[in-house]
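ARCHIVE CARD
SHELF: 3
SLOT: left
DATA:
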Amino acid sequence: MGKKIALLVIFGGISSEHEVSCSSAASILDRIDTKKYEIHKIGITKTGKWLLTKADTQFIASGAWEDAPDNMMAAVSPDRSVGGICTESGEVIRIDCVFPVLHGKYGEDGTLQGLLEIAGLPFVGSGTLASACCMDKVVTKILVEGLGVRQPKYFTAERDDFMKRPAETAADVEDAMGHEYPLFVKPANAGSSVGISKVNDIKELISGMREAAAEDHKMIVEETITGREMEVAVLGNKSPAASAIGEIMAANEFYDYDAKYTNEKSRTEIVTDISSEKSLEMRTAAVDIYSTLGCRGMARVDFFLTEDKEVVFSEVNTIPGFTKISMYPKLWTAAGLEYGDLIDKLIDLAMEDN
């Protein structure tokens, strides 16, 4: 076997999805082939400190990695002549590829991707522009509109306007949405269903908008789509492929943070009971959306399937969950691509696209 690939896994982060990121990173590190890769790990604390760590995966998953005695401050250098990490001791560690496992803001939204592009380091997943566009639900909707895929009716509001005139802004939402409830209120830039509320009247609408405003400067209010929640995993660069379709059986009223990550009654299953034509329609839409938004490497594209068998696009996640119960690796495992082989493929795609 030739020289190992120096792989940097970055996890944690200052977003509200910090714990999920640590759990995803631990799952990846548990399954990665250490015969192929020389692994380096940088964890970012909730306060934004970057630490090069040798902590075992069990401590990364639990969050105890932050207290590892041999942690060292370190960062990716934007200087291309460095080609990797600079540590507080003055050591330089050359890196061949980076696997960012940071869900949400400052990890999935193009900010980290911009640093890695400046540094000239290949990395897993979409680039700066696609990451930013997919993270912003409003921008995503605008770009997808031209594809002819149905989306929920929506209304956008700015935090500053809402905070100055909450009742009036809520009334504007009601007028735009035809005074129909329930509605979903979401931060435009957040993941893992953080800050999302299902609301049934104007009082709950104002409360939900306050919650969303705590996460982002821009909010989106959507009509409720009644149907099955489905997800498609997409993999590839110039010729992306779509997986089979997975379905979410949420333990809660909707697939919120608790239902995704802590409630063991939530389930995900491979869909086998829809027609081949409907499956092809959804999988084709997933690839079209992926390509239109400029994604590369990987993404999970989410849909609803209504009782009338209409496919309705929901959102795109460019760094989907990689925990032991996450849909993205589960879908590819069902297609015959085991978890470890999926990691290899993602790293190959990152280095191919550099």
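SLOT: right
DATA:
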Amino acid sequence: MSSKTQIKENNMKMNMFEKSKQNFIIVVALLVLVILFYLLNPNFLNEYNIISMAQSLAPYAILGLGVTFAIATGGIDLSIGTVCIASSVVAGKLYTDGLIPLWSTIPVMILIGGLFGLINGLLIAKLKLPAFIATLGTMMVSRGLSAIIVNAPNVFYPTGTWFNSLFSNNNGFPSGILWVLGFMVICMYIMYKNRVGRYILSIGSNEEATRLSGINTDKYKIMAYVLTGLGAGIAAIFWSSSFVTVASATGSGMELDAIAGVYIGGTSAAGGVASVGGSVIGAAMLVVIRSGLNFVLAKYNVSVNSTYVTYVLTGVIVVFSVLIDILKNKKKK
């Protein structure tokens, strides 16, 4: 075995060790939060709230899994929230107007998400627009265009059907969690075991060096944003099955929760390092914080909106997570 191959294998082992260590720390932090909120208010872990948290986790976790690919390139996607809702309302409108059966809403949502991901990828890779500007533009376009197409304040999905059971709640069991775990395994394979993921991480580490090594960086950067868009389209399926009334021209803010979960989970804001499992754990942490604060503030009659407190805590956690990442990268240099 050559020395270069040995060094490469050692680096891969070190990276896997670092990711495992980081995920372990995040899981411990999540468990501490769960125990803390339970001690403050035992109703936090009642059956209804556990199912509710699991249902709300699914769309945000899948948004996070998708946007992990864009962030791994050193970019970002601000459009995933509005694209998720746009996919849901457009597919829902086609269904309620009798143009497609319920099962057809699934490929329609995925197709719309993938299309916006492709547009983002082309704008960033081919036209060289900054990711922030390109995805900010598509965020506004997807929000406004979907509202124009639907031409209604709300779109309604049916309740008590196979659609709800399969993707949201099956007789009290949060079936969406199984899908999240399945998608997480698929994303892990793509990111760590497939050429696509390795090239995406290489672009995030050093795009110019990757290009000079003969890799078509534009192609793989586009693929990263397509995967992110597909994540938004898939998340729309779980949003539609859990929240059967979907409001048009919404979704702004969803992307911030998803991206915050990715950063908390250990994916580097600078690109080149991605923690797929951490993205799901980070999303779970935000769901637990949001729900736990509701129970604690209600029990102690604190007259503060829990949403605002969640914003504060999330902001502090995100800044702290990114700061640790920056310090870690400096230490490596």
